[in-house]
Amino acid sequence: MTPSDPKLPANNRPDPNLLANIRIVLARTSHPGNIGAAARAMKTMGLSQLVLVDPAVFPNSQADAMASGATDVLARARVCASLAEALADATLALGVSARRRDIVAEVLTPVEASTRLLAEAQTGPVALVFGNETSGLSNEELSLCQGLVTIAANPDYSSLNLAAAVQVLSYEIRQAWLGQASWPQPEMDAASGDEVEKFYAHMETALTELEFLNPGSPGKLMLKLRRLFARTRLAKEEVNILRGILTAAQEARRAAPREPNHGPK
Ligand code: SAH
User: Fold this and answer.
1) Torsions phi, psi of 245, nearest 5?
2) Is position 263 within any domain?
3) Nearest protein Cα to ligand 1, atom 21
4) Which structural domain range is residue 26 located in?
5) Which atom of ligand 1 is nearest to the CA of 149?
6) Is 145 found in the same domain as 28?
7) How far is 146 from 6, CA to CA, in rounded Å?
8) Under DSSP, is residue 38 helix (H, G, I), strand (E, B) or coil?
9) Is residue 242 part of a domain?
10) CA distance 183 to 88
11) 173 and 60 share a domain?
12) Ligand 1 pocket, 131 CB below 6 A?
């Protein structure tokens, strides 16, 4: 008897709300057929939340044709102008990419990612973010993610078709979901994407006011700070504390500005 067996008592069956809280985000998709094929891949595994960020062509007949019996997933797909908008209410976003980058510290396997997403999906929406067919995920897109998922593939040819990558991750999520009826509660009240983005924006403003960051040549400071915080993951309360510190520093600087000769030359 598997945990999904309807004869099991209700509290031993996997919770469908967990799958409903897992969002598949496709960033800047070029080919509408891939959007349809991704919708089909999702529906076969019980996922339904598709979000499209700035797709080149959508809605489209090729997308419908490739979706086959999953046109309902396409019909309910949300289209967003930016990835930040797609992740605003998510407490965990994992970027799916074949390439290791230095933007995101943590690299997970699909199995590890599935476990993490399902546990976190108990409290709210979580997301898997897939990149454009040609260019993959940009560094800016990855900087909005707290971890990276890589499908271990043939090192001589490791780039799967976009919808095939969606299928692999959706399958692993379903296997993990079927295999476990209850998940450990996340140990903290994680900040949402929007709360974390507002914190970064506040930090950038404060560091500029403190003349630590020169907006004329910012270098990679903000990207490095994003990576630092993505590594720890931020709780709502921690974001509030950090923003309080920034505000205190800004107020102190405004009350006692630097002598002009100490400013930037
Ligand atoms: N040329 C692109 C590949 C894009 S394939 C690049 O090098 O990044 C389209 C998307 O499918 C990727 O952005 C990623 O989300 C997913 N994908 C394809 N192969 C993958 C792999 N081996 N591991 C993780 N994601 C993969």
Assistant:
1) -65, -45
2) no
3) 98
4) 10-179
5) 24
6) yes
7) 36
8) helix
9) yes
10) 24
11) yes
12) yes
Largest CA distance in the chain: 78
Write down the pLDDT at residue 7.
Answer: 52
Residue 169 neighbours by CB under 8 Å, 6+ apart: 24, 96, 110, 113, 114, 128, 149, 151
- By C-alpha distance, which of 199, 203, 183 is closest to 191? 199
User: In terms of pTM, does the model score above 0.90?
Assistant: no
pLDDT along the chain (265 residues), means of 10: 51 88 98 98 98 98 98 98 98 91 77 96 96 95 92 96 98 96 86 94 95 89 88 90 97 86 52
Residue 1 confidence (pLDDT): 45
CA of 163 to the centre of ligand 1 (A): 10
CA–centroid distance, residue 66 to ligand 1 (Å): 19
Question: What is the full DSSP assignment across 158-190?
Answer: ----HHHHHHHHHHHHHHHHHH-S--PPPSS-B
Give the end of a domain, one of 123, 155, 179: 179
Residue 80 is encoded by which pair of tokens?
Answer: 């967003």
Q: For residues 174 and 205, state if they share a domain.
A: no
| Tokens (6 digits) for 65 | 């044709």
